[in-house]
TrEMBL record, chains A, B:
Similarity comment: family membership: Belongs to the FAD-binding oxidoreductase/transferase type 4 family.
Protein name in UniProt: D-lactate dehydrogenase (cytochrome)
One GO process term, biological-process aspect: lactate catabolic process
Keyword annotations: FAD, Flavoprotein, Oxidoreductase, Transit peptide
């Protein structure tokens, strides 16, 4: 594991707060080593920094209560959803209280006529979609993991559908949140747009719990399209695949998903998911629309693909075949780990203007090869976002150093291409130095906002800034 | 005119700052009464509060220079685009310097492959679209007025296309801004999505110049669709028209525009634009897509409209007829004023969940009738946003009082329906009491952010908060 800086602990404050909360929450406050460790754990190479206690609130009022106790004793509060974040977001570098929101999992309202719903933060995206299915609605954001919607909002998550439906920032209408002083606010209501004051909704989305705890989320929903079809197409090179993506976006084809798997990823998918895809770069697509609309999109894409040397273009609209293909895409993390059993997977997350994508992906492949790293690539290429999964033996210091070099080099390269070091994973602990490189002077104003709203730095300290 | 509260003036600071800036900017700083008055003027019923001087910078560096001088002497800075805002946004209640950005009107880059561009804040939306046309691209946000893109970002503008393309918050990738201390920041780069830190882009969008001056905007562009067609359909009642809108949105028909004109607005349009529309509530629509896609959308809408008693459903894809229809829509403000020559038009801007829209519009019609006010209504009904244009004799105190009653009553009603007092016009001076009603405790955190970034309250004081 890579070390994360520890912050000064407020021992006496923590002891008092844990005592007070234990009295109030009884068995819903846990201090066992295993549960604490589990709440510091994330799918990351950063060392675990466990909280001192984990508390399971059932209501906004209880969250406010917890935050007020922690505020009174200047004790860190770390919101926890499902623990699927990747940059140490739920670590507790100064100790404190992990607030596990998984038991706040009620769908409070579904307004079919308005295409919106109101949920508690612990509802997962899969649970919500299961609940919505009978009503002909769905929530499109799909980061892969079955994350909680509160966590997805907090990290400004996106994933495979973002090319058409946007990210969490585009699909949250408003929030209820407990602020660092324990006050409960609403950032808006259910209007589909508003120009009423500062956009606190978007400020909290992506703030990674450092400005408050999200306790209720009003989400935009979409009608399940009449037709959903999938396609796949193989390309001779990553460059050819990226050219096809760029042309698809320029043509305005409203693709619902357009995903790249590089050659190494295709090999991994074939082995893990029992497929027999040609082992060259692959695009996986999904089209949403009316029957004829989805068919037309697929046809137009087919023509574009042909222009760039695409081959083996296959479409399918049966649910079973479609699910098999997308299951393989979702399983890419596990499939890739099988390329090197026992290795730790370290995911990068750069996002660049699409015109620079081919160059950036190709350079990443070359750099990994040069460093001797096994590093399959998948990407949400309609947005210019891709993930290199470095497969690292963490007991080999030279490899770990190589991985650190690679991550830094790739982040710097994306920034130099007018891109970002994080398209969707967030800053957490791991990317803090790159945030400064990317946004420079702007980070001072982020820090000013943080100090103004959370003067004692109790909300998820050590993250982002 | 309705009076706006004046704020304490810093006379000596203003005198010094004007003197220093006059030396630096020469003829590009103006202090004549006419130009000062023009820069306090907005299309509003709020009295004019002129700035002490108007300065015309040509570069970000010059804007930073102006702000630094004003910061040193604690003098208000009021950014000015085209002066088409509606809630006293450019008034100078404490005097100070109006920064007119109209000469910062360069299109700095168009990246066709990435569907984005970089513009200075003084570029208007019409100028940008003229520039883009040859490249097959367009920028969709259309608030009606030919506003500057800087002003549109500052007020989180939207308009007729928002139902499909979103608002300014959805179409700005990143900003460059001069902050209250004169520092220049970038809030992001050209990646289509990012999870890098607090979303300062969205914080500045809609901040109405109270947190900084936007000096460069990176915008998302869209390909001009293969086919653009329009339709109109008359309905027996506002309720029937709204039901058709709701069903259209639920069906997921990706309408590019769906606008309501109530009976009184249709009469005004007939008279002003020489049309002969049936004088009942009307929906105007626009469809974007492939040839067959746009046709299919129109056909599906036609079926929905029929279900709700729609009649006289007419589609057109010739540019000339289409332009005539939309020109009439754009001219509604002037057409409505002709219903009562000499009257002042006062526009409301509520936005409610679509399921409440018919009820809200009908109640607004009834209330206006009850108060004896002439008040045609138009609406961006796909978003639940509509504007009542009160036609008021400002020399008649009883009428002005009635208008104030109406505005307050309507804002309260929208808020009670989980909506907002402003879908797109912003808070400015006029809606400050309603912001507090709408968002309550949240406004305290807006104030904390404002104080943190602008401790001397020099950036557009007296607006929003």
């Amino acid at each position: 594991m890579v070390q994360a800086a520890a912050l000064q602990r407020n021992e006496s404050g923590i002891e008092t707060a844990v005592g007070v909360l234990k009295q109030r929450f009884g068995d819903r406050l846990q201090t066992g080593a295993a549960i604490r460790e589990q709440h510091g754990h994330t799918t990351t190479w950063i060392e675990n920094q466990s909280p001192d206690a984990v508390v399971f609130p059932h209501s906004t009022e209880e969250v406010a209560n917890i935050v007020k106790v922690c505020a009174a004793h200047k004790v860190p509060v770390i919101p926890f959803g499902t623990g699927t974040s990747l940059e140490g977001h739920v670590n507790a570098p100064a100790g404190g209280i992990s607030v596990d929101l998984s038991q706040m999992d009620k769908i409070l309202a579904v307004n079919v006529g308005d295409l919106d719903c109101v949920v508690q933060p612990g509802v997962t995206r899969a649970d919500l979609n299961t609940h919505l299915r009978d009503q002909g609605l769905f929530f499109p954001i799909d980061p892969g993991a079955n994350a909680s919607l509160g966590g997805m909002a907090a990290t400004r998550a996106s994933g495979t559908n973002a090319v058409r439906y946007g990210t969490m920032k585009d699909n949250v209408l408003s929030l209820e949140a407990v602020m660092p002083d324990g006050q409960v606010i609403r950032t808006g209501h259910r209007a589909r747009k508003s120009s009423a004051g500062y956009d606190l909704t978007r400020l909290l989305i992506g703030a990674e719990g450092t400005l408050g705890i999200i306790t209720e989320i009003t989400l935009r929903l979409h009608g399940i399209p009449e037709a959903i079809s999938s396609a796949r197409c193989s390309f001779p090179t990553v460059d050819a695949a990226c050219q096809a993506v760029m042309m698809t976006i320029q043509y305005g084809i409203p693709v619902a998903r357009i995903e790249l798997l590089d050659q190494m990823s295709v090999k991994a998918a074939n082995a893990y998911s029992g497929l027999d895809l040609p082992e060259t770069p692959l695009l996986l697509l999904e089209f949403h629309g009316s029957d004829s609309g989805a068919a037309e999109q697929a046809e137009t894409f087919g023509q574009i693909a042909e222009e760039f040397g695409g081959s083996d273009f296959t479409t399918t609209s049966t649910t079973e075949e479609r699910n098999k293909l997308w299951q393989a895409r979702h399983d890419m993390y596990w499939a890739s780990l099988q390329l090197r059993p026992g290795a730790q997977g370290i995911s990068t997350d750069v996002c660049v203007p699409i015109s620079r994508l081919a160059e950036c992906v190709t350079a990443a492949q070359d750099k990994a090869a040069e460093l001797g790293l096994l590093a399959p690539i998948v990407g949400h290429v309609g947005d210019g976002n891709f993930h290199t999964l470095l497969l690292i033996d963490m007991d080999n210091p030279a490899e770990v150093a190589g991985a650190e070099d690679f991550v830094g080099w790739l982040n710097d390269m994306a920034i130099s291409m007018e891109g970002t070091c994080t398209g969707e994973h967030g800053i957490g602990q791991g990317k803090r130095p790159y945030l400064v490189k990317e946004l420079g002077a702007a980070t001072a104003y982020m820090a000013a906002i943080k100090s103004a709203l959370d003067p004692d730095n109790i909300m998820n300290p050590g993250k982002i800034l």
